[in-house]
Every structure is written in structure tokens, then in C-alpha cells.
Amino acid sequence: MRRGLPYLLLFLLAGCAGTPGRAPSPVREGPEQEGAGAASSEQGGAENSAVIALLNSADRERAAGRRDNAAAMLEQALNLEPKNAALWCRLALLRLQQENWQQAAVLAHKSNSLIRNNNALKRRNWRVIAVAQRQMGNTAAAAAAEAEIEKLVNGK
Amino acid sequence: MSSKKRGKKSGTRRRTRTARSVPFLWLLQLAIILVLMAAGYLLWLDHRITTEFEGRRWSLPALVYSRPYDLYIGRPLNRSGLERELQALNYRQVAALDGRGQYHAGSNRLDINPRPFTYWDGKAPPDTIRVEFEDGHISNITDNRTGGLLAVTRLEPTLIGKIYPRQNEDRVLVRYDNVPQFLKDAIVAVEDRHFFAHPGVDLRGMARALLADIRAGALVQGGSTLTQQLVKNFFFSRERSFVRKVNEILMALLLERRYSKREILAAYINEVYLGQNGARGIHGFGTAAEFYFGKPLDELAPEQLALLVGLVRGASYYNPRSHPGRALARRNLVLREMAEQGYLDHERARRLQSRPPGLGRERGWSQTPYPAYLDLVRRELLRDYRMEDLRSKGLRIFTTLDPVRQEAVQDAVRRRLGQLEQQHNLPQGQLETAALVVDVSNGEVEALIGGRHDMIESFNRALEARRPIGSLIKPFIYLTALNQPDSYNLLSRLDDSTVTVLEPDGKKWRPDNYEHEEHGPVTLLEALTRSYNLATVRLGMQLGVDKIVATLHAAGLEEDIDPYPSLLLGSLELTPLQVAQIYQTLANGGYRAPLKAIRDVLDRDGQPLQRKQLEVQQALPPDADFLTEYLLTKVVADGTGRELHNDFPDGLHLAGKTGTTNDSRDSWFAGFDDRYLAVTWLGRDDDKPTPFTGAGGAMQLWAAIMQQGHPRSLKLVDSDHIDWTRAVAVHYGGACLPLDAVPYIKGHPPGTGMLCGGSPFNPMEWFR
Question: Which of B337, B398, B451, B531 could share a disulfide with B600, CB 3.0–4.6 Å?
């Protein structure tokens, strides 16, 4: 059951949005549609400095082993930008650390549902899903997630 | 009784020895018995007073708070908006900051000294912060002491309610060390000047009081020590008798033997009765400070503390709200007494005496301003805690309520209801309503209306009124269909023509459209956005009613549902809360977040007991959910919700669904922007018809609610599995509706059968 963990921790260091402190990745919107309404991305928006500060605090809390606090801060960041896929990915990673496999997988899926073209972020989410599914003993689901990673790597 | 029996027995034995010692022995025995009885009695009193003392020290109501007021760079907020919030929290505007709970206003900035408050993460706010504004946003937040940038900080949450101990008493406990010295001095000076010297009873004080009473010919001084008063408070009764007085003295002496002066004074400060708020007694100076001045005790000015001390002698007689003259005279007496005993000089006393009483605005804070919301909180708490613990352990409960939004929603609903009644010439006050505002991404309930007179605790319609949901069920039918992309897409042809359905009980059911007409072949898009009943029933019967039930369960409906065909037109009865749950899932890309009103629970010492983590579940198929959300934007753009364009700026995308039941007994609207879902219901408690369709009634309330919250245009994010057609025109409402593009699940493009003039003829050409 623990096979995935060293791999997971290595991977955790990679994070979801590159180096901590950088602005989170933008969410690709769907094409401009009447009604479905695509608007400009929130990247560079006024709320970013607050989100970045929360991410930095969350990193500090996580490094200090206070994962619940880190999670609370990520949730607060999500309150500011609920459609920011990178934030959902970070929360998914934290749930992995908290060994909450089920939520880790769901949150990674949720992150993916907000992305269209950011393949790097998508790969990370699928990796979270693969690890979480393996931890839960769902080998088939884990293999399917790994196949998605393959597809993304080969597709580019 | 038993000691008497024993006495008789032993007496009989001894009589045989010597007759002369009999009276003496009898007396001795009697004395021993009396001493034993007295000792037993004292022990009993001691036990009683100790239990009471300890019990009181630990019995505290649970405190229920709103969410904290977040301040962060980029938050849309101007200076006056924040000032209003500070005033609502009873912050004082000053020329220069010198204490907690104060602020200073500059040209485009505010300096604030936030109150200390223990949050879940143990973070305390800095001493003073500077908040700067630019173009209606917070542009900068700095820690004034370090000069460092603060991207995020917060003001303390509002206390929105308490869950009380059984005695129905209110209490804000203060620690002895946090009690201003001025208050301690004033209490001792006025109530018991030898407090630190006497053993619990003050004979000199009693004699002096008696003399004063005789001289005045009336009861002017009590002569009771603080310890005696404390005892009296514990066993509160108006009875005045000799026995009671003796008990009181004995208990006071016992209490002093067991506890230090400090402990007794602390208990007194937290116990003494200082007023009445409805059915609830105001006990202790901490509670009274909040009740009369709306501030914590340690922020009160000396003359305010003196006023509170004046209340000890008669809280209703000297009530500063009903008898300001008396209260002021009594306060000034307290100040003079303090000066005479040397606690402050006469000059300062005179200065303080000339100040106004400085009462805070009367707020029914002890009766929650949001009873319907608190009801939701209480129900959620009872899932995890025992009522006993809630009432007595001093838990601190942090909810998801946004007071600003709640107030705005209350005002909006009240105003719009009145307008609707006027427009339709209805008698005022018959319409009832319920509404909820939910954060789509995490299920947090931010505001809740249980009825139009929400200030009174009454029937909470948002949680308890089960009403048929009408067409609000339709999106779940269409989502079930769209999850079968082989058979259905947005431009599938449905048949809106008369249909007869056989119910399980053998009855024939012949549904009808709202306008009693058939529309023939229509697109799936038109059938939902115009809410056609016949097409929907035919579609639902093709899919199977049990499939629809399964979709509702997946979306978060937790109860058994009978799969009757009439379910397809919303005979299902749900509460607004249940509707909000299934629409939250729908609006969140198919991810269900259980609706919640509680974020964290701390114990009395600020230690976290429970944190409700953000939790979501993938509940509805994402691609079908995306298409359904798209359909709901079309309801607002071209369908039954198009009147919303009167209330919102052009280009603001919203999504939602109207619902109306037979004879307009229920008018519903469930809709969302990019961030918030609101569900509104309008109807009558006696279930009589109203003149309102979903669009004419509940949707109007919905618009009023959403207008209050700076709506954000809905942005739907499509996945890799979604493709879009080229611009097309489709048959719609007997005309041709041009669409920029129509989404479909990859590999399952719509057919061209429902296209009309202007659309390309070659199907190969109109897919991108």
C-alpha cells in the first residue's frame, strides 16, 4: 500500500504551479460563446497578490508539518478564486499528504475539469489520481490514470 | 430522625447506672446531637455552595459567529464600505489610535486597531493595520508596527447567536486579569469597602447600613458583602426571611474559607445580575458591557464602568435605556463615592460626571438577528454534538454566514415582496417566501431567509416547507438524457404533443402545457429553455422515471422517492434547502459539496475541536452536466428567464430555471452566476393559488437578491470532451434562432434536422 509514497513525496516537491510565489496558472476558458460566456482569464487580476500570499503561508505551514492549517489557507485562497485549477491541484496534493486518498483523487479531477490546454497541470493531476487510486487499491483506475499521463506526454 | 432514635436507645441503657447524672447526660447528648446536626448542615451548605460555585464557573453558552470579515488586496471595497462594517462591529472612530477596537480615517485610507480574536489557525491580528483604497478596491494593507505588507488579514466575526445553558442566562465570561482595575475599585468602593479585610461578613458594614436605614427611615444600604451578594445570586429568590439571611451568612463564611478573595471577586464580576433582555437575564459585567455598550469590557471608558456598577443596586430601576436620568445620577454617585474613598481625585471624578452615558445602539444581539440561519446551524451541530455540551461548554462555532449579504438579502426580499403585492393588488402580508444563497464551489450557505418576517423565530420555510418543485426538476431529466450522447444532444428532436401516461395505480395521467398548447417537433434545447411539459414527459418516459430518480440521488437528494410519472413535472415535494443542494451539484460542474453552515468549532480555550474540511464528490457526469449548465444559460438568454435582462447589465451571463406548480401555488427560481447559487420560493402557507409564475414571482426575488451581491458573469469551462459546432440557426419558438455555436460531446455531433434558414446545408462544413 505504501509503495507510492516515496514517489509521491518526490513529486510533491514539484508542486502544481511551478515555484511557490509565482502566480497560479490561468484557467483556460472555453471558446467565446453567447450565453456560455467566456471572459478574460483572472491571471494578473487584482486578487492575485492575496492568493499568492496565502499560497506562501500554506507552503510554510505545510513545511512546518501543520497540514490542517495549510489546507485552511488553500481553502481560503479557493474562496478568492474558486475556478483556479492550480489551487485545486494544490489542495489535492495536500490531501495526498494527509493520506486522504479519496479526496485527493476527486480534487485532482475537479482541477482537471477547469483546464482545457494546460497539459503540465493536467499531467500532475493525473499523477495525483494515479497515486491516490493505487493507495486505495484500485489498480485498474490507477493504470487508467497513468495511461492518461502517457497520452499527454506523447500527444505533445 | 435517625439520630433521635439512637439517642433514645442509648438513654435507656444508661438510666440503669445512675439516676443523678441523667439530666446532665441528656443535655450532653442533646448538645452532641445538635453539634452533629449543625456540622452536617454546614457540610451540606458547604457542598451546595461549592457545587454551585464550581458549576457556575464552567457553564457557558456556545457562541455562534459569522464568518470573519476578510480584508485582502484587490477586494472590491471602498473606504465608506469598510467604515460601515467597522461601525457595525462597534469600532470607535478616534483622532489617534490608542487601543483595540478603534479606527482612524484618512483621505483614502483607514488605520485600524483590530480586536484580538482567536481564530481556528491561532493567528492573531497585528496591533494596527493600514488599509488603503484605490478605484473601489483595497490597494494595500500594511502592518503599521513592522511596516510589512499584509496581503490578507481579517476583522473579527460578528456574534450572531448563543446556545444557552438551561437557566436561560446570558454570560460573557471575563478573566480576572482582563478586568479593568477601575471596575474592581468601583465595585469595592460602592458595594463592600472592607471586602479585602472581612471574613465574608462585615459586622461594621451591617451596623452602618442599619444606622443609615434608620436615619433615612427606609432601606438605603444593603450592608451585604460582595460574598453575601454572590451567594444570594447563586440561589436567586426574592424571599426575605431570617432563615435565608442566616444561610446566606453561613455560606458566605464557608465560601471565604474555600476560595481566595480574587476568586470570589472574579466570580462576582461574572455572576452579578445587571439587567434583562427579554426572557434572558444579563449576568456579569462582561455580558453587561456588550449588552449596554456593544463592546468588550476592557474597552469601556471609566464613566461607562461606573454606570454598570450603579446597576448592581437595581438593574431595572437604574436601567439606562428606560431611566437615563436615574442611571446617570446613580453613576455620578458611584464616581463621588470613589473620589471620597481616594480611588480617584475629585477633579477627575467631576470630569467623568459631566460625560454623556455613551450607550451603544440597542441590538437584539442576545436574541439572534438571524433566527432562521441559526436554526440551520443548530441542526448541523446536533449531528455532531450533544445538546448538553452545546449549552454549557462555551464552544465557539464559526459559521459560513456573511452578515453583509444576509442583511442585503433580507432587505431585498422584503422590498420586492411588497412591490409584487402592490403590482398585483394583493392584500399585504399573505405571501410567504424562503431563500438561500450558497457558494457554488464549496457548498457554504452564506445567507438564508426562512420567511418574510424573519426577525421573529417562526416556521423556517427554507428548512421545513416541503413544496412541489414543478419545473425545477426538468434540468435533471435533460441531464439524464444528455448523458446518453448516442441518443440525445442539444438539437435532438423532441415531440411536444399530447401524451397519456398510465400511472402505477392504474389511473391515466394527461399532462398539459402551461399555455395549453402543443408545439410539435422541437429541439431539446427549446423544450427545456421554454419549459415544455409534454416534450419533457415524453422524454422522461423514454428514459425511465427510475433513471431520473437516480440522477436526483446522485445530485445529493437524500431520501426515498417514489418513481411516479408525475414526478417528471415536479410533483416531488422538496424544501428550498434540498433544492439548493441538488442545484449546487449541477452548478459546480457535477461536483457535489454538501451544504454546510459550519466551518470550525473551537472549545472555550480556543483549541480546535472540529474543522469541516472542504469536501467535494464527483456526483453527476461532467460532460452532460456541462451541456445542462449551457442549457440553463439559454433559459436566461432566450427562454422562460429572459426577463432577467431587465435587471442585469447586458453581457452578464447567468443561468437558472423557473418552476411553477398548479394554479401557481408555488413559484420557484434556482439560478447562479459564476460564484453563487440562489434558490427562491414564493407562495402561501395555506397553499392557496397566487398570481405568480416562477418568472413573475420567485425570479423577481432572485434578481433582487443577486443584484445585492455584485454578480459575476458565468464562465463555463468546457473539457476536452466537448466540441462546438459552427454558428447555426435553429428552429425555436416558431422562428429561427441564431446561435454562435452549440456544444456537444465529442464524437456525437447533432444532426442537421432542426436547423433553419441561414445554416450551412453540408453537415460536414458546420463542425469545426
Answer: B398
Collapse the DSSP code of B307 into the 3-class scheme (helix H, G, I; strand E, B; otherwise coil) and give the result.
Answer: helix
What whole-number distance in Å separates Cα of residue B171 and Cα of residue B187?
A: 19
A31 interaction partners in chain B (CB closer than 8 Å): 718, 724, 741
Q: pLDDT confidence of B19, banded at 50, 70, 90? A: low
Hey, is B577 helix, strand or coil? helix
Residue B655 near residue B714, CB atoms below 8 Å = yes
Taking the Cβ of residue B591 and every Cβ of chain A, the question of whether any pair is shorter than 8 Å is answered with yes
Give the closest residue to B316 by CA, choosing from B281, B341, B340. Answer: B281
Strands (E) located in B675-750 = 676-683, 722-724, 728-732, 735-739, 743-745
Compute CA A96 distance to the chain's CA centroid, rounded to the nearest angstrom.
Answer: 11
CB B114 within 8 A of CB B82: no
Separation of CA B300 from chain center: 27
Quote the minimal CA–CA distance from A89 to chain B in Å: 13
Half-sphere exposure of residue B462, counting CA atoms within 13 Å on the CB side?
Answer: 30
Quote the cell numbers at residue B648: 442585469
CB contact under 8 A, A49 and B722: no
Contact (CB<8Å) A69/B121: yes
| Average confidence score pLDDT of chain B | 87
What cell numbers appear for A4 in the block? 507510492
642-701 in chain B: CB under 8 A from chain A: 653, 674-675
CB contact under 8 A, B74 and A29: no
Q: For residues A18-35, b (16+ Cβ closer than 10 Å) or e, as one string?
A: eeeeebbbbbbbbeebbb
In B124-163, the residues whose Cβ lies within 8 Å of chain A are 137, 150-152
The Cα of A98 is separated from the nearest Cα of chain B by a number of Å equal to 12
* Contact with chain A for residue B393, Cβ under 8 A: no
Which chain A residues are closer than 8 Å to B720 by Cβ? 116
Q: Which of B757, B559, B583, B557 is nearest to B657 (CA)?
A: B583
**Whether B617 and A72 lie within 8 Å, measured CB to CB:** no
What is the reported pTM? Answer: 0.80
- CB–CB contact B137 A46 (8 Å): yes
Q: Quick: pLDDT tens for B627-675.
A: 999 999 999 999 999 999 999 998 999 999 999 998 889 999 999 999 9
Distance separating alpha carbons of residues B688 and B426, to the nearest angstrom: 13
Q: Hey, is the C-beta of B78 within 8 angstroms of any chain A C-beta? A: no
B702 CA to centre of own chain:
21
Phi, psi of A75 (to 5 degrees): -65, -35
Q: What is the pLDDT of residue B51?
A: 83
Residue B467, H or E segment: strand B467-468
Optimal mutation site among A54, A81, A112, A113, interface B, most CBs of chain B within 10 A: A113
pLDDT average, residue stretch A74-79: 91
pLDDT tens digits, one per residue of B512-529:
998 889 999 999 999 999
pLDDT given for residue B683 in this prediction: 94
Kindly write down the DSSP assignment for every residue of B633-662, as one continuous string: HHHHHHSTTGGGGGTS-TT---EEEEEE-G
Q: Three cell numbers at B427?
A: 392584500
* pLDDT score, position B453: 77
CA distance B393 to B31: 46
- Asked if B766 contacts B740 with a C-beta cutoff of 8 angstroms, the reply is no
Q: Which residues of B are catalytic?
A: 191, 471
B557 interfacial to chain A (CB closer than 8 Å): no
**What is the least distance, in Å, from the CA of B706 to any CA of chain A?**
18
Q: Chains A and B: how many Cβ contacts under 8 Å?
A: 128
Cα separation, B307 vs B304, whole angstroms:
5
Find cell 497585528 and name the residue. B126
Inform me whether the C-beta atom of residue A110 falls under 8 Å from chain B C-beta atoms. Answer: yes
